[in-house]
């Protein structure tokens, strides 16, 4: 499935190749950079706020590492969810292609092969072979 360059996949209007899996590491890097900027700004804000309100300043200083860790964890969860979804889609595509090749090879004269199940994407229903909608 990993054939073609970045720009070939970018302008592939049939959407047979997934570009997102190549961009995931950059999305995760952006998430970490966002978490770092947020944590640092909270730390600096806490230091500056401690001149006027000691309680808020100390709270911000103590919570800034926790905010960084939580935002990094959130970025990781989002990226892993994206990867899982796209890998499931790739696996399903591979299975469908294998099933189609098998169905084509089973179409020998005189041989009765079972029809594969149909998937209706509008109703999100799987119909067994020979079922009428």
Number of strands: 2
**Helical percentage:** 55-70%
Uncertain regions spanning at least 5 consecutive residues: none
Based on secondary structure, the structural category is mainly alpha
Tell me what you see in this structure:
This protein is mostly helical and 133 residues long. The protein contains three helices and two strands; from the N terminus they run H-H-H-E-E. The protein has a two-stranded antiparallel ribbon with strand order 1-2. Helix 2 packs antiparallel against helix 3. The radius of gyration is 26 Å and the shape is elongated. The mean pLDDT is 82.
Which descriptors would you attach to this protein?
two-stranded antiparallel sheet, 5% strand, elongated, mainly alpha, 2 strands, 133 residues
Task: Give a concise summary.
This protein is mostly helical.
């Amino acid at each position: 499935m990993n054939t073609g360059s970045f720009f070939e996949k970018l302008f592939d209007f049939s959407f047979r190749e997934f570009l997102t899996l190549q961009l995931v590491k950059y999305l995760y890097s952006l998430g970490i950079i966002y978490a770092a900027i947020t944590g640092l700004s909270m730390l600096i804000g806490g230091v500056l706020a401690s001149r006027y309100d000691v309680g808020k300043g100390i709270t911000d200083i103590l919570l800034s590492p926790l905010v960084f860790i939580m935002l990094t964890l959130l970025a990781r969860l989002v990226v892993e969810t994206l990867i899982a979804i796209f890998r499931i889609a790739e696996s399903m595509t591979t299975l469908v292609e294998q099933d189609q090749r098998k169905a084509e090879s089973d179409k020998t004269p005189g041989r009765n092969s079972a029809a594969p199940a149909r998937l209706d994407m509008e109703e999100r229903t799987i119909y067994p072979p020979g079922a009428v909608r």
